[in-house]
Amino acid sequence: MGSLESGNSTRIENSVCRRFGHIRVSRIVFLLCFLLLLLPFFTHYYLSKVEIGNQNGDASRIRFKLESLEDLGALKASDLRLRIQEMERIKGSVSAELRDLEAKRQGLQQEISSLASRIEELKLELARQKSELERVKLSVVQAQVAQREAEQRNAPQLNLPGRLFPSEPPTHLNALPPESVSQVSHVHCHQHNCFDYSRCSITSGMPVYVYNEAQGELSTFLHTALQQTLSFNPHITKDPKIACLFFVPIGHEADLTKLSQLPYWGGDGRNHVLFHLSRERLQPSEALVTSELTGRAIIIQSAFAQTSFRPGFDVVMFPALGPPGGDVWQDCAPMVPARRDLLITFQGELWTPGGPGEALKWALEQLQQMAAGTTSDRFQLEFSCQPATEREDLWGDWSLCGIEASRQTLLRQSTFALILAPANATLTTTATLQARLWEALRDGAIPVLLGGDTLQLPYSEVIVWRRAVLILPLSRASELHFLLRSVSDADILAFRRQGKFIWQTYGASLQSILDTSLATIRDRIGIPPPAVEDAPSPSVFNSTFTPLKTEALVADAEPEESLGPLEPPHASPAYRRNYTVFLTQGFEMWNDWGDPFHLYPQLPFDPLLPSDAKFLGSGVGFRPIGKGSGGAGKEFCESLGGNSPREQFTIVMLTYEREQVLMNSLSRLHGLPYLNKVVVVWNSPRAPLEDLRWPEIGVPVHIVKAPRNSLNNRFLPYDEIETEAVLSVDDDAHLRHDEIMFGFRVWREHRDRVVGFPGRFHAWDLNHGGWLYNSNYSCELSMVLTGAAFVHKHYLYLYSNWLPQAIRDKVDQYMNCEDLAMNFLVSHITKKPPVKVTSRWTFRCPGCPVSLSEDDTHFQERHKCINFFSQVFGYTPLLNTQYRADSILFKTRIPHDKQKCFKFI
Question: Do the strands 759-764 and 783-784 form a parallel or antiparallel pair, or are they unpaired?
Fold first, then answer.
């Protein structure tokens, strides 16, 4: 029994010891105390079970057991204290290790987080690199295709040769006697035998040297105006060594014998231009510059005698009756209504020895009978001036009656203005005749030149005057009334419009006269005009700053609809200036309205091609110059019908302090086919935030820093625009990819027009008069807003360089109407309405900040803009249309009440 008890105690003891290592110290202490209290009870229990016999027989052994148990309790208490101390030490060590492990764990977690972010960045970089690799592969394929096309065309790309300039001014021709010089230059002088082409390389740009001192007396006005005007001409140079032409201003009472004393006269005046101005006193024929004393110099003036005029060499110009330069639209008469109160008018008096000839006398009698006849038409024909003006120097010519103001009042009441040819048959043209023509064109009275079939009109080698002037022989005087009445209202407006264009372009100001005179010679010798410069597009970021990038929000794809391939940026084929255009195409690539594709030499189109020339195919024949030469790309006619290979478009987006709206709009462009580049015009005064994240949309996004906050910045021809097609978009416009692609396809079929989404129209106010702007939904439209519209880049040149400054100033004044101005411009040029595409009735994004169009004064300003623009143009060129282009597969549902309003394709 004792052994059994000892074994049980040992097992209990071992079991307790094993569990001590897994319990806390406090519990061990509590258990130990409990055992010490419980031990006497266990001892008493076991002793009470011992048999009485054994108690008497083995007392010594019982005492030994009791002593052993007492020693064991004492021993266990000591061991427990030591173990408790050991456990406390272990606890401290474990706590320290746990703290170290926790610190290591946190460090590892931070490292894992950084590695995870690095992995995401590498994934994005890998995706970008893959995308870039795909674009590079496509670029290589396209380059190979372009190379094959070039080889098939057998037209290698040639760089312009270096400019060739003479090494010195023309030297005196001592070997040629004076009588030979006079004999060569008099009457028989032509461009081929009197002009030195060796000084005018085709790449030289035709530099012109101007003599500081005029020959003869110039009025103060002409002298000052001429100096100012010459400073704006791009051909002027101060180096006589490289000059192609030498410009000599000629005033009244000039001593032509002193021309030979000019330092660069060269003995015969070759390549000299004698510029004889007429203003205060329209000089008689006796005071004209004649070719007897001018050698091989080109004469430019307003009057010539038949014996001294050299066709194809000398130039007839308008008299300088206008201002030095600037906008002249205020001086023009309105072009409507077509018919005015008086059918035809004339005021003048003929001074000629012996009276008029038989033919002229008969013609005057027929005109008087026409005026005295029974008809509802009103005439005012006065063949004598009251009071009479007797000037012997006007013998053979018709004098002007009254003052300019009275003549202007009469002409603005006249549908036609009669101009009689001089009675002196030896006169090719006179300054008074040019003054009559100048005033008639300005005031909208269609000139009727009777007996002018043998006369020379200004710049007749580059202007076909039959588009603006009725030219009749004297024998038609009896049929004049019938002929005038047979002219329809549409033809009257066409004549008037063409005449206004000729007046504004070629004779309204001294600057236009000078530019046209020099450009006439430049066109004659076959030197292309200087190209216009693209507008610079400086980045809003400095050169060292790299904007942050983020992934774009990819819209849900529509797998069943293919919008086109995603290609790398591909610029439109550059139009390299064709130096044989004067020989091959001549004037046949221009539109028949004479519109401003040739206004100033500094524009990318020739300022002298005639206004009646035919265009090829599209309705407008531009001659833009490609990138590197300043211009917009190939001609319209070469890419009609969407046949231009690999054509893309550029999005121009104007923004002002709406960063998040802009970011959202850019994100929606991700994956847009045929997109070449996005040009963001940053109109805000402050730069973008450095932490602003720009979405990666797969094409370059160029942020242009605008010099000032102006809506005209939307239509600057930025050099970053390398495509012909430009999609002008507001930063809050929300267009789907399929809508944009369909609009682009429609534009390729109507490249000369504005093609876009939001349509508007104008209407006449019957109650108060004037035009009203209307944005209500209608079956007709006359404008497409450029908040979402395609235009050709060439119109950006015209808007920024040709459109009257008054219109751009009005846009800045109202901070409004730039879209109306573009519609006016394109409709004026093409005589066609814009094209609306798709059936969306709104394209604004929900939740965007309030825009300028939400202002209460927005519509009032647009009413005023339409009326003001109509005054500047002289009429309202906007045309109504019910045509709209829509795709058969387009998904937008059309309201039933709108479906009948449109024609579909």
Answer: antiparallel
Say how many CA atoms lie within 13 Å of 828 toward its Cβ: 27
Where do we find the tokens 């995603």? 566
C-alpha dist (Å) from residue 85 to 36, 90, 96: 19, 9, 17
* CA angle 483–343–610, rounded 5-degree value: 65
Q: What are phi and psi of 305, to 5 degrees?
A: -95, 155
Concatenating the DSSP letter of every residue in 275-307 gives: EE--SSS---GGGS--TTTTTT-EEEES-EETT
Q: Taking a C-beta distance cutoff of 8 angstroms, is the pair 273, 521 a contact? A: yes
Distance, in Å, from the CA atom of 289 to the CA atom of 607, rounded to the nearest integer, reads: 27
**Predicted pLDDT at 410:** 96
Residue 795: other Cβ atoms inside 10 A: 24
Within 8 A by CB and 6+ apart from 753, the residues are 747, 826, 830, 832, 833, 834, 835
pTM: 0.76
pLDDT at 378: 93
The DSSP-derived string for 714-754 is: GG--BTT--SSEEEEEETTB---HHHHHHHHHHHHHSTTS-
CB contact at 8 A, 249 and 277: yes
pLDDT averaged over 10-residue windows placed end to end, the chain, 905 residues: 51 56 66 74 64 53 60 67 84 87 90 89 86 80 74 62 77 49 58 89 89 83 86 89 93 82 89 86 59 86 88 92 90 92 93 78 92 88 74 71 92 96 87 93 96 88 90 93 94 94 92 91 84 86 81 57 77 63 45 34 32 27 31 40 74 92 90 93 89 88 92 94 93 88 90 92 89 87 94 91 93 95 94 85 48 68 95 94 78 52 43
309 CB-near residues (< 8 Å, 6+ apart): 316, 428, 456
Q: What share of the chain is helix, strand, coil (3-state, %, to 5)?
A: 40, 15, 45
Q: For residues 698 and 511, what is the distance between their CA atoms, to the nearest angstrom?
A: 48
Contacts of 354 (CB under 8 A, 6+ apart): none
- Strand 835-837 and strand 755-756: pairing? parallel
Q: How many angstroms separate the CA atoms of 567 and 672, rounded? A: 10
DSSP run (H or E) holding 52: helix 52-57
Cα-only R_g, the chain: 47
Please tell me the distance from the alpha carbon of residue 467 to that of residue 451, in angstroms, as a whole number.
17
Q: Is 568 helix (H, G, I), strand (E, B) or coil?
A: coil
- Whether residue 383 contacts residue 346, with contact meaning beta carbons closer than 8 Å, is answered with yes
pLDDT of residue 554: 58
Q: What pLDDT is recorded for position 850?
A: 46
- Would you please indicate which residues are annotated as catalytic (active-site) residues? 819
Q: Cα angle vertex 374, ends 371, 376, to 5°?
A: 85
Distance CA 193, CA 206 (A): 19
- Residue 39 CA to residue 178 CA, distance in Å, equals 156
Q: Residue 412 is which amino acid?
A: R
What per-residue confidence (pLDDT) applies to 692? 87
Long-range Cβ contact pairs of 639-645 (< 8 A, separation 24 or more): 639/724, 639/748, 639/751, 640/749, 640/751, 641/748, 641/749, 642/745, 642/748, 642/749, 644/572, 644/573, 644/724, 644/748, 645/145, 645/149
Query: Which residue in the block uniquely carries the two structure tokens 């190209």?
Result: 531
In this predicted structure, what is the pLDDT of residue 738? 86
Query: 248 with 211: CB under 8 angstroms?
Result: yes
What angle, 0 to 180 degrees and rounded to 10, lies between the N-to-C axes of helices 25-48 and 2-20?
A: 170
- As a whole number of angstroms, the distance between CA 880 and CA 759 comes to 11
Q: Tell me the C-alpha distance between 191 and 313, whole Å.
A: 6
**Do the bridges between strand 379-382 and strand 342-351 make them parallel or antiparallel, or are there none, so unpaired?**
parallel
Q: 3-class secondary structure for 833-891?
A: CCEEECCCCCCECCCCCCCHHHCCCHHHHHHHHHHHHHHHHCCCCCCCECEEECCCCCC
Q: Which amino acid is at 672?
A: L
